[in-house]
Design a protein that fits this description.
Blueprint (H helix, E strand, L loop, with lengths): L12 E4 L5 H7 L4 E3 L2 H6 L7 E5 L4 E5 L4 E4 L5 E4 L1 H7 L5
Antiparallel strand pairs: 1-5, 2-3, 3-4, 5-6
Amino acid sequence: MIIRYRKRPVEVDTCRWDGDNEAELRCFTGGNFNKLAPEDRDRCDDPDATGEVFDRLHSTWVLVYTGDSIIRGVQGEFYPIRADVLDETYERVS
């Protein structure tokens, strides 16, 4: 059986990764963000990734790309979202 759901209105905090604001992202995520060094990028699943954020709900590090925003979810989790998806899914509050 297929059941359709609508996302509840929810406000989330975000912080955009510009490739140089590691300290800001580390503060925003409580230390759960790392900028990837060039040698680490060469060894990861996608060398275009420039950072990583820890998703505590799934107990894994998630790759982040310059220009992505990090969302603090409703359960305090952090995850990246592309700019176009953010614009399609959320509207700016402040």
